[in-house]
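queue> pop job 88
queue> type: inverse folding (structure -> sequence)
queue> payload:
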């Protein structure tokens, strides 16, 4: 049976700390949602996100993250055919764009990581449908995060929902464990076979992140060495939550806590 090193099983206190980080991350994304409109630059959105994180005593997790070169921003902002890891810039959002925003917050040594996709102004029917299906697939996966379930159950639930609508999931980009590090074991693919893979145990914390493409599952990386796009330039969408496995079912860590 595949098992996960106990160092990646979280205590109740650690999960509470992840909830605190996730709360700040959720506050950031809720504010960014309000600001998405035609004419706003992705760099302006990024500055707002960093300010909110630091005002709450946090650190932008993505900024300086190792890669082909240290990631230069707080958010990843990916537009239309850009699936993930788009770098904020002076580019302004346009009516009809769909934009995916991913954010990570480190607070007291623990990380919250989440993402959403939203239309800019009025968007077409395909974009609206894609966003809806991607969000639904996130929650289909989360429903499977129960002690005794397998990672394959989570992955298959996402894949089945996406493919039922004729869409595709990438093969080389996945969800992941999350905690003190942004990327911990295990990898959480958006495709799989029910009943296979790691058995979920209480205290595991994983980031579920369906990435969905209209055309094919194939992707490529742009010359900036970070931005991943659909190979055929078709529309893409992306949602993510950090989730804990508990005896009472899945606990979403990256949402605004009730006061």
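queue> result:
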């Amino acid at each position: 049976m595949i098992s996960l090193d106990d160092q990646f099983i979280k205590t109740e206190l650690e999960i509470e700390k992840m909830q605190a980080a996730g709360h700040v991350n959720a506050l950031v994304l809720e504010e960014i949602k309000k600001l998405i409109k035609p004419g706003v630059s992705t760099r302006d959105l990024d500055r707002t996100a960093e300010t909110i994180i630091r005002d709450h005593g946090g650190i932008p997790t993505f900024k300086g993250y190792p890669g082909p070169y240290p990631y230069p921003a707080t958010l990843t902002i990916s537009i239309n055919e850009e699936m993930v890891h788009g770098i904020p810039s002076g580019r302004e959002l346009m009516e009809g764009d769909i934009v995916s925003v991913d954010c990570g917050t480190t607070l007291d040594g623990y990380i919250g990581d989440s993402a959403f996709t939203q239309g800019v102004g009025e968007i077409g029917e395909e974009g609206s449908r894609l966003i809806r299906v991607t969000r639904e697939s996130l929650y289909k996966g989360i429903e499977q995060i129960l002690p005794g379930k397998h990672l394959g159950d989570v992955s298959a639930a996402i894949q089945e929902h996406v493919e039922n609508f004729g869409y595709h999931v990438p093969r080389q980009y996945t969800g992941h464990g999350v905690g003190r590090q942004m990327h911990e074991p295990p990898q959480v693919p958006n495709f799989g076979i029910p009943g296979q893979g790691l058995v979920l145990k209480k205290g595991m914390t994983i980031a579920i992140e369906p990435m969905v493409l209209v055309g094919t599952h194939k992707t490529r990386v742009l010359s900036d060495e970070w931005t991943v796009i659909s190979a055929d330039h078709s529309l893409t969408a992306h949602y993510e939550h950090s989730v804990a496995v508990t005896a009472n079912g899945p606990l979403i860590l990256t949402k605004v806590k009730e006061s």
